[in-house]
Amino acid sequence: MFLVDSHCHLDSLDYQNVHKDVADVIARAHEAGVTHFLCPGVDLESFPNMYEMVKDFNEVWCACAIHPENINEGNRDWKDDDLRKFLALDRVIAVGETGLDYVCTPETRDLQIPSFVRQIHLAVETDKPLIIHTRGSALECMDIMKAEGARDCGGVMHCFCEGKDEARKALDLGFYISFSGIVTFKNGENVREACRYVPADMMLVETDSPYLAPVPKRGKPNEPAFVAHTARAVAEIKNIPYETLCEITSRNFSSCFKVSLS
């Protein structure tokens, strides 16, 4: 049986106090039944170090992009060729994470949008799916995705924190929807409503480690092993066996990112 953590920041975990190294994180995840991992990038400067950390693990894939929180006046003129170079590396399978964030960095809205559009175009050009981050921006983000042809490369709405209406719009674009520990939170009823609505064959599960640890690990640093708790919660919401949910979401991951699990 496979279970994929479709979004974990392995380079951001606490290797001073919690984990020995990436191998330790992966071993703990394997003990929990988690078999594969996708580690997204957040900017072009830190990506090489992240890639070096994980590239030798056959069960780990990477993505590269510029996170909307990391767009500023100093890097607004990032070079397409720099991102292309990283996207061409072995085991780099997606453009992500990218999108729009109007909660943490609303002041850079006018910089975020053109950067996001350029990354959509590069995803289409390189035929790599998008990993989309939205905060306070979901509807505008999806309007841009539709206008700029994101359907042609597909991808996933990561760490989905919206409701049924936004889920419907994402599905209309052909995008998968990834549920994180938020689906287990007391105040996450809108996400649970979306989870009930989204067809199982369009779902992924993730941790977004080291953030958003699911119940019963709430308040602790998140890690890939904990995606099993999220998967169990989603299986309960969908009223399907846990093993079936793992099988379906693993198959969805393969389809979304055009990779084979082994």
UniProtKB/TrEMBL annotation:
<protein>
    <submittedName>
        <fullName>TatD DNase family protein</fullName>
    </submittedName>
</protein>
<dbReference type="GO" id="GO:0005829">
    <property type="term" value="C:cytosol"/>
</dbReference>
<dbReference type="InterPro" id="IPR015991">
    <property type="entry name" value="TatD/YcfH-like"/>
</dbReference>
<keyword id="KW-0479">Metal-binding</keyword>
<dbReference type="Pfam" id="PF01026">
    <property type="entry name" value="TatD_DNase"/>
</dbReference>
<feature type="binding site">
    <location>
        <position position="7"/>
    </location>
    <ligand>
        <name>a divalent metal cation 1</name>
    </ligand>
</feature>
<feature type="binding site">
    <location>
        <position position="133"/>
    </location>
    <ligand>
        <name>a divalent metal cation 2</name>
    </ligand>
</feature>
<keyword id="KW-0378">Hydrolase</keyword>
<dbReference type="InterPro" id="IPR001130">
    <property type="entry name" value="TatD-like"/>
</dbReference>
<feature type="binding site">
    <location>
        <position position="158"/>
    </location>
    <ligand>
        <name>a divalent metal cation 2</name>
    </ligand>
</feature>
<feature type="binding site">
    <location>
        <position position="97"/>
    </location>
    <ligand>
        <name>a divalent metal cation 1</name>
    </ligand>
</feature>
<dbReference type="GO" id="GO:0016788">
    <property type="term" value="F:hydrolase activity, acting on ester bonds"/>
</dbReference>
<dbReference type="InterPro" id="IPR018228">
    <property type="entry name" value="DNase_TatD-rel_CS"/>
</dbReference>
<feature type="binding site">
    <location>
        <position position="208"/>
    </location>
    <ligand>
        <name>a divalent metal cation 1</name>
    </ligand>
</feature>
<dbReference type="InterPro" id="IPR032466">
    <property type="entry name" value="Metal_Hydrolase"/>
</dbReference>
<comment type="similarity">
    <text>Belongs to the metallo-dependent hydrolases superfamily. TatD-type hydrolase family.</text>
</comment>
<dbReference type="GO" id="GO:0046872">
    <property type="term" value="F:metal ion binding"/>
</dbReference>
<feature type="binding site">
    <location>
        <position position="9"/>
    </location>
    <ligand>
        <name>a divalent metal cation 1</name>
    </ligand>
</feature>
<dbReference type="GO" id="GO:0004536">
    <property type="term" value="F:DNA nuclease activity"/>
</dbReference>
